[in-house]
Here is the input.
Amino acid sequence: MRREASILHLDLDAFFAAVEQRDKPSLRGRPVVVGGVGGRGVVATASYEARAFGARSAMSTAEARRRCPAGTAFLGGRFAAYRRTSDVVMGLLRELSPLVEPASLDEAYVDLAADDGHDLSVDGVTEIGRALKERIAEATGGVTGSVGIGTSKMVAKIGSDLDKPNGLVVVAPGQELEVLHPLPVTRLGGVGPATAERLHQVGVRTVGDLAARSMTDLVSLAGRAHGAGLFALARAEDDRPVVPDREAKSVSAEETFERDLTDLAVLGREIDAMAARVSDRLRGAAYSGRTVTLKLRRYDFTTLTRSQTLPHSIDDARQIAATARRLLAGAGTEGGVRLLGVGVSGLSVYAQGDLFAGEDDGAPVEATAEVAPGEAAPAEPVAEAPVPADKRWWPGQDVCHDELGAGWVWGRGLGRVTVRFEGPLTAPGPVRTLPADDPALHAADPPDWRTTS
Ligand code: TTP
Ligand code: MG
Here is the structure.
């Protein structure tokens, strides 16, 4: 561990939702949920206003709709806008140090010791964090971030999460255990639900409880490598360096079983859980991939991999799981399986609107934000045959109308589309309902939030 608190971790607050609120002034200060808007969609994130009602990442959108009040906006994702905002933030981090390691679109580590201009005293790094937060909010048009600074990556990351949103936590050298030990073990990276369950069963709930266990105990609970890792983390021992510009080539998850498994149904459930983890990580980094790989170690330690390349990129847990299950069925489970892994490679960055493709169940969807008095009412879905033209539009999408200007899709009924005409630099704007096949209405690029650029 370092002597100085020289590792900074930044995590933007409610990132996708914050970008939506920046670009859609009528949604500022209101509950916003970003994710799959179709019948089986999943929440990517919720604004803090929506979290107050219980909306959370990875919850089904249907559940979030039940929890959130009328007036909550449910929007699809606009990855081009998120990536552009992310690039601006990563640029600011690179001004602080040449050693910046992006961990996802909204998260990065910075090694402050790699630039000798910095005062690395506690006061010095506190000022660096404060000034950085201010510059981020200004450069992004109001997206805020939370910063943690400490002697290791683990401590910095835990710090950035301690006082969200818009937090700044500096863990002074020597104070690591005081901060760590009261926290639940699930706050440590690498303690998933299965490990947490096993730890709870033996009375380990906090990191402090974990630190009280011997290495032998932890190895018998979690296996050799994982147990040793937990032992170190509970003591705040983490000497992982900040590695600049690590570009993901694949995203994978794997699991070793305590006993060899043969039951296809049980293995199928394991695959589903791993596919969900892979999908979360892909989405967090705004990637999707075309090749799904299954890794399988048999009872006799022979290891094989099987992969399938699909015609288009995917990030959806169900599609990843379905492909991996097919690969497993092809490989066979005779004799028992000791380890399974699921990975996605051949990664590409999302195109705008791709995010939740494949989840559309054809039902009319709209952002469901309420309309202020005096504004045009949104389209009621009308009893007529669905017009394919309305499939082009999805809630939250950027559009431009030849006469009415720039705006975003507020909702689409059968054969109609409702647009709110506003942008990041305008006041909240009016909504208008148009035919979905209006030739004057076009899909558009994300608006620029900077007045000069
Ligand atoms: P997070 O940093 O985990 O979440 P957040 O920024 O929305 O909220 P906060 O950090 O304030 O708690 O993830 C960053 C973005 O990644 C998030 O805005 C949306 C996306 N994401 C998903 O698509 N699916 C997920 O399950 C999670 C957790 C995040
Ligand atoms: Mg975040």
About this structure: The pocket of thymidine-5'-triphosphate (ligand 1) is lined by residues 11-16, 44-45, 57-58, 106-107, 164-165, 280, 283-284 (CB under 6 Å). The longest helix spans residues 264-284. The chain has 13 helices and 18 strands.
